[in-house]
Amino acid sequence: MSGGGGDEGTSLEFTPTWIVALVCTVIVAISLLVERIIHYGGKYLLKKNQKPLYEALQKIKEELMLLGFISLLLTVLQARILKICIPKHLTNHWLPCKKDDVNDSVHFQTNFFSLIPGGRRLLSGSANSGYCEAKDKAPLLSLTALHHLHTFIFVLAVSHVTFSALTILFGGIKIRQWKSWEDSIKKEEYNPEEVLRSKVTHVHDHDFIKGRFLGFGKRSTLLGWLHSFVKQFFGSVTKLDYTTLRLGFIMTHCKKNPKFDFHKYMTRVLEADFKKVVGISWYLWVFVVLFLLLNVHGWHTYFWIAFVPFGLLLAVGTKLEHVITQLAGEVAAKHIAVEGDLVVKPSDDHFWFHRPRLVLFLIHIILFQNSFEIAFFFWIWAQYRFNSCIMGQVGYIIPRLVIGVFVQFLCSYSTLPLYAIVTQMGSSFKKEIFDEHIQEGLLVWANKARRRAVNGSNQVEHKESTSPMSVQLAQVGTQESAMEEGNGGEISHANDQLNSKVN
């Protein structure tokens, strides 16, 4: 016993130097390995001109820094937290487990830490363990609970980053399969402007309209929503949908470039959005705290909370499908026949609160809450074992695991591809419509024009510097360099946008 107590109280003064050096070497080696992997991963992405994914990787590094700071904070404040005492009666309410189930937790700790001599006593024992008992009070948080909370935060952050990356990866793979559709459209080498002059399309006979708007019950609002709900589970985006939405985007935003690479644009937008999805925002941490507060024995909060991402995902998928139905219905309601091919009109009015970006916010919440569900399950399994009281009954465990796997699958292979194409049906386009060097040139020009507008005291000089002629001259060099890479249509559209702003 004395030897055990001596081992528990041994400080670095009486610890063999080879043990200290060995432990430090292992920790530093693992840290440097992870840092080098991230570093060379970033260099590889920059080499492949994947700046959005590189920025997402930097976001992951920020999350790891936040995690490290939380870890450091818990470690430094550990002694002070153990000395915060509260009345004992406050520890008998809002418990995840009943007091009668405490033996299960102790049994697991004995079983788990039996691999480490004195490990169980080290976690439960502390120099400050009797500080609150001497005052006939209870510690705010025990050393064991502090350690488990520390582990939970780490598992949560790693799980969210991992599952978000897998979702974007699998969804991106499916979106890349649409590349064959893009190539086949380009091989047809048709010109929309010529088609508009030489072709007449009967709207109600068009396959896109018949599949999305006409037919039994599809004119009914209720049955239309039901059709959109079911459609998200199979064939959420068909080639006909892709072709029609692509043409609507091009005819609205870049009419002078009929061979605009819509697929490449969608991929760039998705990569840019990934850096927002992979982060753990403050409102997501609020959700974690709220769940920890409501995880009370008998409430089965862990079970009911699983339906939040499930319900949100079904709502988002249904809404995105219904946007396509609305685009078809809008054309069918206005026209019987049109000159040229069928062209839908993108508009923000079809989205919730006229904000297409709200869909990304909801997907962010869905991915985090689903990863939270799965991370919480594996954390309990590893920390307290499967039969722990905090795990809950098997009748509640199996459904939430099935829901978690279903949400992950549906979000990757249906909702994310739907989001990628349908959110382009808004009233405006994103800056990813231009290549990286073009974006930088436009941003530099815009910043210079803004500074001249704010700081320019001479109105004549200001008018000359922002005249359409000077703008066109400034764009000539950029347009010539872009034409070499096939971006002439994009720059032509940029010129139209800039000239309209100046005029």
What does this structure look like?
The chain is an all-alpha fold. Residues 1-8, 102-127, 460-495 and 497-503 have low confidence and may be disordered. It has 22 helices and four strands. The relative contact order is 0.10. It is globular, with a radius of gyration of 30 Å.
Ends: how far apart? Answer: 88 Å
Low-confidence stretches: 1-8, 102-127, 460-495, 497-503
Q: Treating each run of at least 4 consecutive H or I residues as one helix, how many helices?
A: 22
Structural classification = mainly alpha
Task: Return the string of H and E elements.
Answer: HHHHEHHEHHHEHHHHHHHEHHHHHH
Q: Numbering strands along the chain, what is their spatial order in the largest sheet?
A: 1-2
Q: How many DSSP-defined strands?
A: 4
Helix content: 55-70%
- Report the principal-axis shape: globular
Mean pLDDT: 74
Task: State the major sheet.
Answer: 2 strands, antiparallel
